[in-house]
């Protein structure tokens, strides 16, 4: 799709685009994936430790321990974000720090911290949802479609 | 054992996210959104819950589990109250991630100073 | 390859986890002893032989690594742990075993769970029964509490 756009440009612009592509820093995909795997896996590993802790020492079952685990992880994320560690982690971990729920928490919390100078209602309130917004909107909408399809199929199947 | 698989499965989901960053040149917002939708679809197919049984936090910690939880809530409510439940039941099973992010976001903005 | 301290730490930590995972794999496979103990309750309490019978039947399945079961006069709770690699199909097994137990004990209210918490709670309850520190009412109360726990969704 990007190639078609490029072909529509006048020849000088095309030449420039070709030069830009050559000069653009190649991403070390394998190294990035390795770091994403390691960091993401570690965060989930820590999550598992927290979950096991809640199951053994509190009245949570495997079904219900997910919620306090998520809340605890996001609390820890707040500390890591506030002291600047999460951003440093994000620099070399890429998706490894963005994909776990801690990454979601970081996106919300770091936006809140960054924009507090603009006021709490507008600055913090609106910017918190820059990344979280699409996630919630399309999460809900796609869940609606999936659940609708599944419910209709099972009802037809039942009849 | 579950610790090992939590690590591996969580890592794999993050690698999928990383490939979206590097190969498809998507932004974090795009990637996370696609992963949530992916989680919702997997639960519709009945594959996400077995993954959680097998990998524990490796499946509940990545953002994909949010899609799974939404579909779960919707289906549960639809079971009880008919098709309208698909709309009303969405957030029955999950709110921990969003609530915690919002609450600690506000607390964070009160406690911490933005970095230059 | 130039790595920061963070990166080296993560690499080392992750390798350690992988090695640990591979290690437990072998020991789990060689462990053939099942974690089940037949209960013997004093006559003042409910007779636990239905629970022991349930354990005998379920023992046949090779996926199962541990069974805990407790019964009152009309309710039975069974908690089962299975080999980790089989956990992907845990829900299917649980439904099948629940049906089988309901067939084996008609008229009883049978609850079968694969949840680790229920397993831990039943383990504690079994110990209390063996040590004879419970009355009939207390046993019923504990069982009710455990059944409620197993039904929780969030």
TrEMBL record, chain A:
Membrane spanning stretches: 33-57, 69-86, 93-113, 133-153
Keyword Membrane set for record: yes
Keywords: Membrane, Transmembrane, Transmembrane helix
InterPro entries linked: Spore_V_AC, SpoVA
PANTHER family in the record: STAGE V SPORULATION PROTEIN AC, STAGE V SPORULATION PROTEIN AC-RELATED
Protein name per its UniProtKB record: Stage V sporulation protein AC
Organism listed in the record: Compostibacillus humi
UniProtKB/TrEMBL annotation, chain B:
InterPro entries assigned: Spore_V_AE (IPR014204), SpoVA (IPR005562)
Annotated keywords: Membrane, Transmembrane, Transmembrane helix
Transmembrane segments: 6-24, 31-48, 54-71, 83-112
Pfam families in the record: SpoVAC_SpoVAEB (PF03862)
Coiled coil: none
Name this polypeptide is given: Stage V sporulation protein AE
Origin species: Compostibacillus humi
Lineage of the organism: Bacteria, Bacillati, Bacillota, Bacilli, Bacillales
């Amino acid at each position: 799709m990007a190639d078609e756009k490029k072909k529509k440009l006048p020849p000088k612009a095309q030449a420039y685009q070709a030069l830009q592509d050559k000069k653009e820093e190649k991403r070390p995909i394998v190294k990035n994936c390795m770091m994403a795997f390691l960091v993401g896996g570690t965060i989930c590993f820590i999550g598992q430790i927290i979950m096991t802790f809640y199951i053994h020492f509190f009245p949570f079952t495997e079904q219900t321990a997910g919620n306090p685990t998520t809340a605890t992880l996001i609390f820890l994320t707040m500390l890591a974000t506030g002291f600047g560690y999460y951003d440093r982690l994000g620099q070399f971990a890429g998706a490894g720090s963005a994909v776990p729920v801690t990454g979601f928490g970081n996106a919300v919390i770091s936006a809140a911290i960054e924009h507090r100078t603009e006021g709490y209602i507008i600055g913090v309130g609106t910017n918190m949802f820059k990344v979280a917004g699409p996630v919630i909107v399309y999460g809900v909408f796609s869940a609606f479609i999936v659940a609708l399809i599944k419910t209709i199929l099972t009802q037809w199947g039942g009849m | 054992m579950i610790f090992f698989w939590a690590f591996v499965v969580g890592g794999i989901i993050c690698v999928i996210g990383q490939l979206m960053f590097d190969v498809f040149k998507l932004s974090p917002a795009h990637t996370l959104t696609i992963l949530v939708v992916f989680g919702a679809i997997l639960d519709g197919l009945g594959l996400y819950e077995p993954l959680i049984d097998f990998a524990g936090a490796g499946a509940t910690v990545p953002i994909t589990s949010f899609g799974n939880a939404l579909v779960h809530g919707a289906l549960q409510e639809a079971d009880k109250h008919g098709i309208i439940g698909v709309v009303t039941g969405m957030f029955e099973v999950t709110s921990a991630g969003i609530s915690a992010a919002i609450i600690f976001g506000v607390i964070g903005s009160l406690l911490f100073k933005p970095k230059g | 390859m130039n790595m920061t301290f963070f990166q080296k730490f993560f690499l080392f930590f992750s390798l350690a986890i992988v090695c640990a995972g591979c290690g437990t794999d072998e020991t789990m496979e060689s462990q053939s002893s099942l974690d089940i103990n037949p209960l013997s309750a004093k006559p003042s309490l409910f007779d636990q032989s239905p629970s022991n019978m349930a354990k005998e039947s379920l023992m046949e399945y090779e996926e199962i690594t541990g069974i805990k079961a407790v019964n009152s006069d009309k309710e039975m709770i069974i908690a089962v742990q299975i080999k980790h690699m089989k956990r992907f199909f845990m829900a299917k097994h649980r439904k099948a075993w629940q049906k089988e137990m309901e067939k084996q004990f008609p008229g009883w209210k049978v609850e079968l769970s694969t949840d680790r918490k229920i397993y831990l709670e039943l383990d504690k309850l079994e110990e209390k029964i063996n040590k004879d520190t419970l009355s009939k009412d207390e046993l019923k109360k504990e069982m009710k509490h455990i059944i409620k726990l197993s039904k929780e969704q969030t």
